[in-house]
Amino acid sequence: MAIYSFFVYGEGNISLTGTRVVDGVTVPKTLDGLDQGDGSHLVGETLTINTTGRTEIFVDDNGSETNFADNDGGQSLDADVTIDGVTFTAGAGIEAEYQFVLRDPDGNLYTAIAVNINNSSPSFATIEAITFVDIVPPPNTPLEIISASEGPSNGGPGAIDESRLVPCFCEGTLISTDRGPQPVETLSEGDRILRADQTFGVLRRVFTTTVSRDELRCNPRLYPVRIVAGALGKDLPERDLLVSRQHRMLMSSNISERMFGVRDVLIPAIKLTALPGIYVEEDVSHVTYVHLLFDQHEVIFAEGAPTESLFTGPEALSAISPEAKQEILTLFPEIADIDYRPEPARFIPSGRQQKQAIARHLKNQKPVLM
Fold it and tell me: What would you report as the CA-atom Rg of the chain, rounded to the nearest whole angstrom?
């Protein structure tokens, strides 16, 4: 299952102009889908975000796709979430009911999606929040709603996806090599990188992506996760480690062995933020991410801690640049085969299993590296 997230604003955090008549009574307009669920009742009104506060929603999607869509029965909450004081439990269905375009006084355009957690009948009768696609407007700015439409559909382009969030290291991270620890940005094709079995793997390609301050502000999912020195256990990592949210770290413990039948499993860094000393780092002006590609998925060492290399699964290939994707497909043409199923270096639990494993480590006060 694909796990992804996006940030929403509840209706309690926005202002909306306009009124409508219900049973002969004039009441303020709301985001609710009303009869058709296509958002057309909002066109011509003005919406204003009243806060910088936002809530992150984690979605467990069907298969490997990461499109947040309308009428997709495979989408559900991966974790409990509270919006406007109401808590929705993990497993509840969730969809994108309609999308609309807004314009600020300077003529800048923004695209938003109405988020519907399926707790009503018909399902479109309530809209719990909105989320913005790509660019988030500043708070306290009046935004005129100029168009609205049903969807987005699952067959179209991804409205909310994990773009650019494939596993990668931040610039400055020390990677274990045959020459000792080396900064990740200095590595190149042909370098020999230490693997979990204490042999060396040959690095095939290095891909680099820089995210600016404005991009970070507009898409908070691009902020890295900081793993403070020693937070994983066994005094690891040796120094603070910064990785992308979806970068998986090795969990190796008696708890994982009892849960999954294997001691070593890979867990995304964002899921590890439930543990002390691991958090999303927003105090950065920009981020340079570095992806390391080998002939196969590997467990390597960053700041001494076991972690993964780039995994050529569907999410990774859909998130990197077209140029990088073409280069990978040239190196590994078998990836383009419709039946291709990449082999992970270690077992990767489902989203709910990851949450349960981390909760058990917290309850028993055990480190993830034992």
Answer: 22
- Answer left, alpha or beta for residue 291, where phi above 0 means left and psi between -120 and 50 means alpha: beta
Q: CB of 57 within 8 A of CB of 6?
A: yes
Residue 290 and residue 171 in contact, taking contact as beta carbons nearer than 8 Å: yes
- Give the number of C-alpha atoms closer than 13 A to the C-alpha of residue 111, restricted to the C-beta side: 11
Q: Nearest-CA neighbor of 52 among 113, 143, 111, 138?
A: 138
Which residues pair with residue 6 across a beta bridge?
A: 57
Inter-residue contact 255 to 271 (CB < 8 Å): no
Amino acid at 96: A
| Rounded Cα–Cα distance for residues 275 and 265 (Å) | 16
What's residue 336's pLDDT?
56
Identify the sign of the CA torsion 125, 123, 101, 3: positive
Model confidence, pTM: 0.68
Instruction: Find out whether 364 and 255 touch, Cβ atoms under 8 Å.
Output: yes
Q: What is the pLDDT of residues 66-101, one digit of tens each?
A: 678 887 778 888 888 999 999 999 889 898 889 899
Instruction: Tell me how far apart the alpha carbons of residues 313 and 189 are, in angstroms, rounded to a whole number.
Output: 21
- In contact, 28 and 122? CB cutoff 8 Å: no
328, two tokens: 């990978």
Element (H, E) at 352: helix 351-363
Distance CA 269, CA 68 (A): 22
Q: Locate 199 and state its tokens.
A: 């042999």
* Whole-number Å distance between alpha carbons of 78 and 272: 15
Looking at the DSSP bridge assignments, the partners of residue 290 are 169, 208
Tokens found for residue 115:
């988020």
Give the Cα separation of 75 and 96 in Å (integer).
Answer: 10
Three-state SS across 115-152? EEECCCCCHHHCCCEEEEECCCCCCCCCEEEEEEEECC
Element housing 59 (H / E):
strand 55-61
What's the pLDDT at 161?
47
- Is 276 in a helix, a strand, or coil? coil
Residues 281 and 226: their CA atoms lie apart, in Å, by: 6
259 SS3 class: helix
Please list the alpha-helical segments (H only) found in 229-350: 254-260, 269-272, 314-319, 322-331
Q: Are 11 and 32 in contact (CB under 8 A)?
A: no
